Amino acid sequence: MTFVARTSAATRRPLTWLTVAVLAVLITLVALPLLGLVRATLSDGAGHTWSEVLASPMSSALFWEPLGGSLVVGLGTGLLSTLLGAFLAWVVVMSDVPGRKVIGVFATIPFALPSFAIALAWESVFRNDHIGGSPGLLTSLGLAVPDWLAWGPVPVVLTLAAHYYSLSFVVAAAALANVGGDLVAAAELTGASRLRVAVRIVIPAVAPAVVSGFLLAFAEGVSNFAVPALLGLPVRFQTLSTRLYGAISTGDEVRGYVLSILLVLVAAVILFAGNRITRNRSYSTITGKAARARTTRTGGWRLPLAVAAWAIVAATAILPGIVLAVSTVLRRTNSLDGGLTLHYWTGASDPSISQGMRGILRDPIVVQALGGTIGLGVAVALGAVLIGALAAYVVRHLPGAPRVKSLIGLLSYVPFLIPGVALGAAFIAQFGAPVGPFGSLYGTFAILVLAGIAASLPFAFQTATTSFGQVSAELDEAAVLTGASGPRRFGRITVPLVSRGLANGGVLVFVTMVRDLSVVVLLVTPATPLLSMMTFRYASEGFTQQANAITLIIAVISVAATLLARRLGDRTDRSTS
């Protein structure tokens, strides 16, 4: 068959046009914003900004000091998150500690909370009078809180680790669950000590998962914006994310775009280096089908281990919620002396309280932001899952074309390397000005949806790939023999079988968007209010009760949706077992 004939035949297949549509969408959402970001820094009159940021008398304050701050935060977050997550994973999966299943549930909750929720709870307790304003609970009780504990890198790292250790816990727990109990038992029968079994069998088996958890927490710590902004900026502790936000928000867009590109490169180098560490190395210690993980008897350590595990989940999943809830009903910020009130929830305007601001449930802007936040989460979840599902379907069913499949996979993965603030800057660079017949999208709800979908593509694509991979090709082949067309097979066979997995992924995308601040912080305008941005603004302006109350609303929505996703996942596991 000639090339022309093959091309003509391919264009008559619906899958070919679906592939073209998927590539067009991915290029629009991922490639073009990044190219627009680079183009904006190389345009006429902007080239000197690179040398200004990297090698000028101002470069230390513009780039090198924020880079050092980002690396300190990332390294501290990665190490502490890995330590806490791996410990709790071992307790839940392999120990005989009482209540370990409940500990496992609580260990996943902090990641469902907004990162700034834990930061606000920390501020409510540990804030001192170093920068003025209302002090925290400890200071109001007469206890002196040192500056290093109230502000700067230490509280930033501690609060981020309290948020991101859930990532390390999930990946480490999954790895430990696959360590065969029969192999551990056989090693113990040979007289090997528990320490030797751990060093020779358990640790090598879970090493890739531990490294992956560290890299995820490291990358998230480097790119996080909200926590360094709340706990670092008041004492001029800068990271790359806060520095580029400051540049763009003050009108210095080109400098912010340069910092965005550098932040993307830093995150990419970190993840690439981690992949090189574990690539082409064998950590396998198990052959055949692994048996159920063997429970380790902890003897006299059982109670201390239980206390330590419960203390971690209580401090990260329970106490922050209690602190935030209590702070919202205190008449005086972070002080028990003024009595209790529901004014910050339901009160009318009172000039003597919070400069006359109404309670958040009576504030039309907050109500509008609540609707916008839920609407954004739903729109992004639907869009990301749809695009991810179509991309996964093309990669699975497109005959041949390995380069096309690789390009789709690459474009679907690239947003994982782009920190949220940098992605927002890329969308401003590409869509912030009119392009041909299309007007500027900046300040519209559409740019929030598009940026959210782009940021969520890696997870949506991976979830869809896993869901499609669980559908046997034999079902599709049987349908072909009956004469069913491609669209009919997809709608009647594939969609029902993968729908629950896709719904689970959609719920988690919804949670991420509802609680996220980094992606939208540069894109939100007064015309498109969101709860996360209102929380940040209120906290920055000193309206602590209102900020904490809105954060609680976000937390309730996020945790409820996360528990729903967990329940959907459990049902999926039972239905496929």
UniProtKB/TrEMBL annotation:
<dbReference type="InterPro" id="IPR035906">
    <property type="entry name" value="MetI-like_sf"/>
</dbReference>
<feature type="transmembrane region" description="Helical">
    <location>
        <begin position="197"/>
        <end position="219"/>
    </location>
</feature>
<feature type="transmembrane region" description="Helical">
    <location>
        <begin position="407"/>
        <end position="429"/>
    </location>
</feature>
<keyword id="KW-0812">Transmembrane</keyword>
<keyword id="KW-1133">Transmembrane helix</keyword>
<feature type="domain" description="ABC transmembrane type-1">
    <location>
        <begin position="370"/>
        <end position="565"/>
    </location>
</feature>
<feature type="transmembrane region" description="Helical">
    <location>
        <begin position="547"/>
        <end position="565"/>
    </location>
</feature>
<keyword id="KW-1003">Cell membrane</keyword>
<keyword id="KW-0472">Membrane</keyword>
<dbReference type="Pfam" id="PF00528">
    <property type="entry name" value="BPD_transp_1"/>
</dbReference>
<feature type="domain" description="ABC transmembrane type-1">
    <location>
        <begin position="67"/>
        <end position="274"/>
    </location>
</feature>
<keyword id="KW-0997">Cell inner membrane</keyword>
<feature type="transmembrane region" description="Helical">
    <location>
        <begin position="102"/>
        <end position="122"/>
    </location>
</feature>
<feature type="transmembrane region" description="Helical">
    <location>
        <begin position="254"/>
        <end position="274"/>
    </location>
</feature>
<feature type="transmembrane region" description="Helical">
    <location>
        <begin position="69"/>
        <end position="93"/>
    </location>
</feature>
<feature type="transmembrane region" description="Helical">
    <location>
        <begin position="164"/>
        <end position="185"/>
    </location>
</feature>
<protein>
    <submittedName>
        <fullName>ABC transporter permease</fullName>
    </submittedName>
</protein>
<dbReference type="InterPro" id="IPR000515">
    <property type="entry name" value="MetI-like"/>
</dbReference>
<keyword id="KW-0813">Transport</keyword>
<comment type="similarity">
    <text>Belongs to the binding-protein-dependent transport system permease family.</text>
</comment>
<feature type="transmembrane region" description="Helical">
    <location>
        <begin position="303"/>
        <end position="326"/>
    </location>
</feature>
<feature type="transmembrane region" description="Helical">
    <location>
        <begin position="365"/>
        <end position="395"/>
    </location>
</feature>
<feature type="transmembrane region" description="Helical">
    <location>
        <begin position="441"/>
        <end position="461"/>
    </location>
</feature>
